């Protein structure tokens, strides 16, 4: 028999439900655990917005809202950092000398994700999808809602200094995380009546005070990534329910190091499942485990 709580939770979210997937490089593995927990509660996307790694994950969600968690688990479990980012220091120096702006020129990561759905246009996906990028000329956010999925995902995940910009629709585009890392307002603009936010920058988790240089860099990155969310979530929550799904406990890891994917998926699944078993949604508002502002404290 269906779980009565499951039915109540699904029915309490007005449709269309948007899944909003934020950027964060290798931390995007956490979104797979969140997606599995949502799937267990029969909560699936009617539309999808994503930035950077969230655009790569999000493209698969938009292509297969029901089976995305399983397909993404397969992708993330087979990611190998050396295969994604090939070559040693000499090759990176050579690439930088040749390109002048980036140390890699091979979109291996994006290709691994997009192999799951093939060479299709955004209009061919199961549900509406927007990948967020940055217009290099204007420094403004750009929502890519049509055309080839592969170029949209490549543009959204083109980290400046790491990957080259992507030329698309007459514009040079970079990673959208520079301006809109968690595109909640874009989802509202596409007609969402409920938002399910999958922020892989350790949502609602306290980041400890840094005591070493790596911790300081990590702390700075997390704070920067959260600022846009802090501004936009309260705005969205005034008009629609915003379910801010928790992830794993913070771990210090390079956004280009994919060695912790399995643990990030597992831990985020546990946190998200526990949250979804207890959360009660009753109209517009922000539904989360704790204050995001408090999570930035020491």
Which percent bin holds the helix content? 40-55%
Radius of gyration: 18 Å
Shape: globular
Please report the number of helical segments.
Answer: 12
Structural class by secondary-structure content: alpha/beta
Strand percentage:
5-15%
* N-to-C CA distance: 46 Å
Q: How are helices and strands ordered from N to C?
A: HEHEHHHHHEEHEEHEHEHEH
Largest sheet: 9 strands, mixed
Average pLDDT figure? 82
Number of E-type strands: 9
Stretches where pLDDT is under 50 for at least 5 consecutive residues are 92-97, 99-103
Summarize the structure.
This protein has 298 residues and is α/β, with parallel strands linked by helices. It is 42% helix and 14% strand. A hairpin with a 2-residue loop joins β5 (166-168) and β6.
Written description of the protein model:
By secondary structure, this protein is an alpha/beta fold. About 4% of the residues have low confidence. Helices cover 42% and strands 14% of the residues. Strands 1, 2, 3, 4, 5, 6, 7, 8 and 9 form a 9-stranded mixed β-sheet that branches. Strand 3 and strand 4 form a beta hairpin. The protein has 12 helices and 9 strands. The termini are far apart. Helix 2 packs parallel to helix 11, helix 3 packs across helix 4 and helix 3 packs antiparallel against helix 8. The chain is globular and about 45 Å long.
